[in-house]
Amino acid sequence: MKQKLGLCCALIHDPDLLILDEPTTGVDPLSRRQFWALIDSIRARRPGMSVLVATAYMEEAERFDWLVAMDAGRVIGCGTPAELRARTGQATLDGAFIQLLPEARRQAHRTLSIPPRVPDGALPAIEAEGLVQRFGDFTAVDRVSFRIERGEIFGFLGSNGCGKTTTMKMLTGLLPPTEGVARLFGKAVDAGDLETRKQVG
Fold it and tell me: What are the ABC transporter domain coordinates in residue numbering (predicted)?
């Protein structure tokens, strides 16, 4: 929302050049999509307006007319997204950017591969059963249940305000649930249980 407000403020005097410095950093995917739809609608009404954008999101850079790829303060490539992909023989802009990096920086890059986990039968690290969090009449988290095995990488994915942080606060004992139960290493979450909390970073 702050990014949209900042954009509106920048557009009040109807500029010919709009400069956006990482305008969607830390913004959820839905809000990012809405932000760029707003930019597209502005450009449709003002085709002569130039837009300069700094971003680390390659999927956003795909929509730009021209790119300057930089590393350590130096330009490492220029062109349209299609030209950069073609020049490097890569199918994605992520891959193209990595190929444009100096050899010494590229050597450290490895494709991430996470092998499937084999459950070992141990107690799970976290269990949530029917977690609910209400603030007055507003239900922030509604009957959330899941199990996270030890050694598992588990992620919450969703837009800002969807309940991710509230759920995490209930799992760590920072916020008692309105309903339901959370367990860490088989024990019900208790903010005062220092032995269990020592196992959580």
Answer: 142-194
Which residues are bridge partners to 179 per DSSP?
A: 132
- The pair phi, psi for residue 124, each rounded to 5°, is -65, 160
Shared domain for 86 and 12, answered yes or no, is yes
Count the domains in the chain. 2
Tens-place pLDDT, residues 78-100: 999 999 999 999 999 999 999 99
DSSP H helix total and E strand total for the chain: 8, 8
Q: Is the pTM of this model over 0.70?
A: no
Query: What is the domain range of residue 47?
Result: 1-108
Q: Which of 79, 33, 85 is nearest to 60 (CA)?
A: 33
Amino acid identity, position 4: K
Gap between the Cα atoms of 162 and 179, Å rounded: 18
- The dihedral of CA 141, 165, 193, 150: what is its sign? positive
Q: How many CB atoms lie within 10 A of CB 171?
A: 22
Q: Are 46 and 54 in contact (CB under 8 A)?
A: no
Beta bridge partners of 19: 52
